[in-house]
Design goal:
about 525 residues, 19 helices, about 65% helix, mainly alpha
Length: about 525
């Protein structure tokens, strides 16, 4: 579907991350030992273990979206989660086999014999010389960006997630302007057991709608009343007709004489047969003392009836249009409460109601998915590193990166919507990888040296982040705005997380190496 279409782009970025780490580590070990078996063993036991943990946290982040009720995001979690597992398996098995095969002639089959500079050494010197400045500067930047969270808004306008430059959307706006309608109408749908039960709802519906219009709660309304007056209005008219007929006896002869005299007086042509038929209908109508209902309406060949009444499922609908100020929350709550009190056979719907419910469902589902992702990540990371302080440092990039993402979007007036809000949980899955790679290289490489940790993992993290940004960033160019905003959120998240991982964690490790 529209949401799952982004999976291929995201998986390419993630798969390249895993491949980069394996190729780089295998090549480095081949440079040192020139032994394929030993190089593969070290690569899989050290870098491979970090990849397994990072892929597990990412896959679980995707799978956590399954708890949302929004079908598009639900399916995104299934497809992307399975995709990550497949990427992990192929990275370890297929990539390992290919590396052993192509390195038969030596390390030159995998990497250049002389390692190309990536700026890691410059990063190491900067971190080692000025760790306090880096931490202080990072804290100030994070605090400033966090203030942008207060400007964050949720955009539930469907037009803002549609196709850029859509002619259909433009035409719809023009139609609304010409019809002098500000906002979409609400619909009150009433379903009855039979026609008689539906007839009984005509009076309550008309009194309710006319009352709302008189009170200024709605701008205007359209209902079956335009074709079939409500029963209580019919009774008023019938009583007046009874009085009229009682005072003046109506005969076709006298009516015909009066009508023809006036037609001839004004030099208007007429047919005698038509006049007789017409007058018979008038007299019959004036002497009609029975109420007319929906069953009588079915016999009238008027296509407009189908806009309000469906005899197949015994239901009718009324259309409510907003005032100049549009549908505000207070007005919607009043209408929802009133319609809800009329019984289960009265249903209120419409875009304003629908998107409000979707918004609540998507936001609550996304929050739950984010919480589940965070908890699962904590469990997995603790199981791998076995020390609370290491867990905190691993989760630092993704936690601060998440807050920075919200802040940057707030300052940039980039709102969350129905589609991109579900990807918030993915930031935790993507961003936690960088912290895992740094801490794995620091803790499990035989010596707790931040310089060595950055040499082992720094270049890979830079390249991995670059490919992730390239993959997710390419989504920003999508014609479908909803998908483009997904790319924007993930791009900002990846950049924020990698900056924290490459600067803040190493700076902290430099200052606190004695307690670690």
């Amino acid at each position: 579907n529209i949401v799952t279409s982004v999976v291929a782009t995201v998986l390419i970025g993630l798969y390249v991350d895993y491949a980069l780490h394996i190729v780089k580590r295998y090549g480095d070990e081949m440079r040192v030992n020139n032994d394929r078996k030993k190089a593969l063993e070290i690569t899989l036991s050290k870098t491979g273990s970090a990849i397994v943990i990072s892929a597990s946290t990412t896959a679980l982040s995707f799978f956590s979206i399954l708890i949302t009720k929004f079908t598009g995001l639900h399916e995104l979690g299934i497809v992307a989660g399975i995709g990550i597992v497949i990427c992990l398996v192929t990275s370890l098995l297929l990539m390992g086999s290919l590396l052993v095969w192509v390195s038969g002639a030596g390390v030159s089959g995998v990497l250049a014999v002389k390692e190309i500079s990536s700026g890691v050494e410059t990063l190491i010197r900067l971190v080692v010389k000025r760790p306090k400045r880096i931490l202080l500067s990072g804290l100030i930047i994070v605090v400033i960006l966090c203030f942008g969270i207060t400007r964050q808004r949720f955009d539930n306008d469907p037009e803002h997630v549609g196709v850029r430059g859509s002619k259909a959307v433009a035409a719809l706006k023009v139609m609304h302007q010409k019809a002098s309608k500000k906002g979409d109408p609400l619909h009150i749908v009433i379903k009855g057991k039979d026609v008689e039960a539906l007839n009984d709802a005509l009076d309550p519906l008309e009194k309710l709608l006319s009352g709302w219009e008189n009170d200024g709660l709605i701008g205007r309304y359209d209902s079956i009343n335009v074709l079939l007056p409500a029963p209580y209005k019919q009774k008023i008219k019938i009583d007046k007709l009874k009085e009229l007929v009682a005072k003046n006896t109506l005969h076709i002869g006298s009516l015909k004489k009066t009508l023809t005299r006036e037609l001839e007086k004004n030099n208007l042509a007429y047919e005698k047969d038509y006049i007789n038929t017409y007058l018979k209908g008038v007299v019959a109508a004036l002497n009609q003392h029975e109420l007319v209902g929906l069953k009588e309406l079915e016999a009238i060949p008027n296509p407009r009836i189908n806009c309000f009444y469906c005899k197949d499922d015994v239901s009718m609908v009324a259309y409510l249009y907003p005032t100049e100020k549009g549908w505000d929350k207070h007005t919607l709550n009043i209408i929802k409460d009133t319609v809800g009190s009329m019984g289960s056979h009265w249903i209120l719907t419409g875009n304003s109601i629908l998107f409000d419910e979707i918004k609540s469902s998507v936001i609550s589902g996304s929050v739950m998915a984010t919480i589940v992702t965070l908890l699962l990540n904590l469990v997995i990371v603790y199981w791998f590193f076995k020390k609370p302080l290491y867990v905190i440092l691993v989760m630092l990039p993704v936690t601060l990166g998440f807050l920075m993402t919200l802040g940057v979007m707030g300052y940039a007036n980039a709102s969350f919507n129905f589609i991109n809000v579900g990807t918030v949980a993915l930031i935790f899955g993507l961003g936690v990888d960088y912290g895992i790679y740094i801490m794995q290289a620091y803790v499990r490489e035989g010596k707790k040296d931040i310089g060595n940790a950055l040499r082992v993992s720094g270049k890979n993290i830079m390249m991995g982040a670059a490919t992730t940004v390239a993959g997710c960033g390419s989504l920003v160019t999508a014609q479908f705005i909803g998908i483009a905003t997904v790319g924007l959120v993930l791009t900002i998240g990846a950049i924020s997380c990698v900056l924290i991982a490459l600067f803040i964690i190493p700076a902290f490790l430099c200052l606190k190496s004695d307690v670690l």
